[in-house]
What does this fold into?
Amino acid sequence: MNNKLAQPTPRTGDIRLDLLLEEISHPDVRVRQQACVELGTHSDLRVVPWLLHFLDHKYLIVQNSAFEALRRIGPSSIPVLVANLDGQGVMVRCKIMMLLGTFRSRLAVAPLIAALKDPHEYIRSGAASGLGMIGDRAAFEPLLAALQGTDIQLAAVAATALGRLGDPRARSPLLIVLRSPHAALRIGAITGLGYLGDRTVFNEILPFLQDTSAEIRYATVMALGWLGDQRAVPELLPLAQADAGFSSDLEPIAATAAIVIGKLGGEWSLDVIYATIENTQIESLYAWAVRGLCEMRPNSAVDLLINQLQSADAFRRFYAVVALGEIGDGRAGSALMEIAHADTDVNSAGESITDAAVRAIERIRERQHSALTG
It folds into this structure.
């Protein structure tokens, strides 16, 4: 474990908090893991240095719990995270960058731009990814320089990040990189162009559906989903029917293509929707699948979405809440009330799950009122 952080003192004056700060160093890994989880419910920023200690713990379950706790503490921790960005171990610094990207604060832009020149490749790539997540166009020139540099891995991440900025100036340099001999750069460019959302690149991206690389085909399917151009539907059908490949995240290309077809206005596959909702770890795919469920509205939709409210993934709970509000079935009322009162988390865009639940409850009540008044 990284020892460069000065060990904080477990004395805050809050009896329960002091107990958790003692438990986080308990010999039993399960006690440590649970202490990390509970520390994420505290707004006291004195817990942040403690949690940072455990971002490179030897047990992955403790690492993940510490990371989730920091994410739940939220943007108020940004000054502490920025202060600890330098001088830590590589793993801790990379995870701090992920958190800064998730919080999408402009306070993180300058230190992340500086980190693009860090001597460690993982730090450089993490900085580029974080800048893309934040989406501040002040990062355009530094990311463009990274795209055009000699570090292939950094350039690939910068390509995706440039697209996420939404700056139209990214179109031309990304189209140039699309012809790179390096597969990683082509994948980054395809993904970046998808995020950019400029449908004029449709014909430039489309041929990559036939690429021999499963990862490139998967990236192209996702990019066509983000572009939102219905011309992609007939081109995606053969992949939905017969592509046996998987992405590096083990997402099946056939199922992904089927979900994108539905998202673009084609025919939805209910079996694929169910499988995607249950299994995918890709937020965009999950959101698209939930949209399909709302459009098809099978009898089992409400029960499935209520079960999703128990997920550990904030993005699953968020989109399930939104969908339940759209469907408007009163059976979801009590489950949504629990979320509205207790779920303080946010999705990756910083949208409050509590606020989404309140809106969903209002929509259900409006629908019930309309049904009663005719």
The longest helix spans residues 353-373. The domain at 208-294 is CATH 1.25.10 (Leucine-rich Repeat Variant).
